[in-house]
Amino acid sequence: MIPLFLKRPRKPRHSFLRILTGSDLSSRRLPFVEVRSGIPGPVLWLTACVHGDEVGGVVVIQEVLKLLRKTPLQKGSLFAFPVMNPIGFETVSRGTVLSKEDLNRSFPGGQQGTLAERIAHKIFSTIIKTKPTLVLDLHNDWLQSIPYALLDPYPGQKQKSAYENTKHFAEFSGFLMVNEREDAEDTLELRKTLSGSLLLNGIPSVTLELGGANIVDEQHVNDGVNAIFRIMSSLSMVKKNDSDYPVSFSIPPLFRGKILRYSHQPTASTSGIVRFLVRPGAVVKHGDPIARIYDVFGKLEETLRAKGDALVLGCADSSAAFPGMELVAFAESRS
Fold this sequence. Notes:
This protein is 25% helix and 28% strand. It has helices spanning 4-7, 56-70, 86-90, 115-129, 160-172, 184-190, 194-200, 218-234; strands spanning 13-21, 27-36, 43-48, 77-81, 134-141, 144-145, 148-151, 176-179, 205-212, 259-263, 272-276, 283-284, 289-294, 300-305, 310-315, 320-321, 328-332. The longest helix has 17 residues, at 218-234.
């Protein structure tokens, strides 16, 4: 029989982990949250704001914790790092600013490494110690984009089980499932991300892309919260079924249950002003026009066309183009 005190819902507990002392003797700390049901079960981690300008995930975690006060965990534990990059967060900057590093290319980090590597080590070692069932890393994309679950490249036979579990949890999110770019250079870099490093250590990890950076989009916040509760439902951490947590974007039948390939192709080959011909969520066929680039006098310089059958994930935040600029993101069918 489970003792009565273990049956009572546990409230979120907030604390901080120290990461460094500044030259002005100010203390820089990582906000940390834990919610324990008191009953053995899955261990779920939520992480956000590894890039300091990606504030939407912070609010998603806030809303998840609010809901857990009304719908307590039935079993297991939830942990969260709402702001992994406090230095970038306070300056609304993507990187760590002081050292000009990308924290999400610094994992698993090291105690004697660079500033970003030391922060990464604190985050990574803390997560690893809890033996997580799953880590959901919350990110923000372009302002005009749909939510999707981003999977790291296949890490190899040794981590096959963790990779299969990652795909399983991603599907429960209700989001479109997209695999990261898999060329050799990108794959090597992605091993240094939080999700990539976790996967290499046999821990399932899914990146949830939730709308644009710099601002809080309430629809994307709602989608993120519902996706997380759908996954918790699949783990029996909460009572309700995933149908109680709808997401706003309905995946077209052609792409349901599939893992699509991420692409930014084609990129611009000229400079000018971009006029987009597609919207996030649109399905395009090979050869469909997706954007036109005009010079300052209105002369058409270039028409970009889809390189394959795909779904539009998002459009660039700027309409000023230059050669090599990525303008539209796609989720392409592998078949």
